[in-house]
Amino acid sequence: MKETWRYLAGIAGPSGYGSNSTAEQVIQDSACLVPPHLTAIITGATSGIGVETARALAKKGMRIVIPARDLKKAAGVKEAIQKESPNAEIIIFETDMSSFVSVKRFCSGFLALGLPLNILINNAGIYSQKLEFSEDKIEMTFATNYLGHYLMTELLLEKMIETAEQTGIQGRIINLSSVIHSWVKRDAFCLQKMLSPKSYDGTRAYSQSKLANILHVKEIARQLRARNARVTINAVHPGIVKTGILRASYKGFLTDSLYFIASKLLKSTSQGASTTCYVALSQQIEGVSGKYFADCNESKCSTLANDESEAQKLWMQTHALMQRYLYLPAA
Fold this sequence. Notes:
alpha/beta
C-alpha cells in the first residue's frame, strides 16, 4: 500500500526521482554528465518508450543506432529526432528481433562499422493475444522479447567490454522488463514449454518473457563480475505506460470505459522512458549491476527472478538453443 501511494503521489525515492519524473528531467540532471561521442543501440525505437528514449539520448549528443523491422517508421523517427537535435547521428538497420538470422546480421553489420558501443538498451517488446510463431518456429512473444535480446547481447558483449577498456567509460546494458514478471510461478517456467506452448495465454507468455529478461540480467551480471569487466547490466520496469502493448493487452478483459478511466493513472511515454534513461546515464548507480529498477529507483523483483541458479540454468539452456540454430561457440 505504501509503494502504491508513493507511485500515485509521485513521491521521489532515494534517487531524487519518482513515478512522475520524465526522461527530460533525468537527462537534464547534473548527475547525468555524459561524455561526448557515446554510441547507444536501442531496440524497439520506432514506437512508444523506445522513441522517447532515443530522442532523449540524442539530445545528450549520443549516436543512436536503431535496429528496426519497419524502415519507414524508423526513417520517420530519425527525421523527428534530427528536427529537434540537428546534429544527432542516427543509424538505422533493418532488423527483426524475432529472427535469429536477422539479429545476427544486424550485429555483424554494426560491428563492421568499427564504432564503439557504450550502451545497449534491449527495449523492444510485443504482446500477442493469439499464438504466433517466428520464422524459427518459436512462440513469437518469447522469441522477440527475450531470445532476440539474449542473442544480441551475446554477440555484442565483447565489443562493449572492449569499448569500456579502451575509453575508461563504463558500458551499460538495460533490459526492459515489467512488474508482471512476478505473476509467473516456478512450475510454469519451463523453456521447452515456452518455446512451443500447447495452450496459449497472451498475458502468461508476456509475463514469462519479462521474467526471462530479469534472469538474463542476473546471469550476465555474474559473468561480468567474474571477468572484472567494466560493463553493467540492469533490468527496468518502465511502469504502466500508454503504449500499443497496453492497448493490445487490455482488449478482452477491460471495457473501453474502464480503460479510459484507468488510462488517467497511466504514465506518459516520457515518464515511462525516465527509468531507462536514469539507469543508462546516472552517475548515482556507477558500478551497480544485476539489479531491478522502477520509477528511477532500485526496487524488489520476485523471489524467482532473484534465483541465481534459475538464471544460470536459463542462460545455459538458451545458449544450447542458439548453438543448435546458429552454431555459436560452446559456453
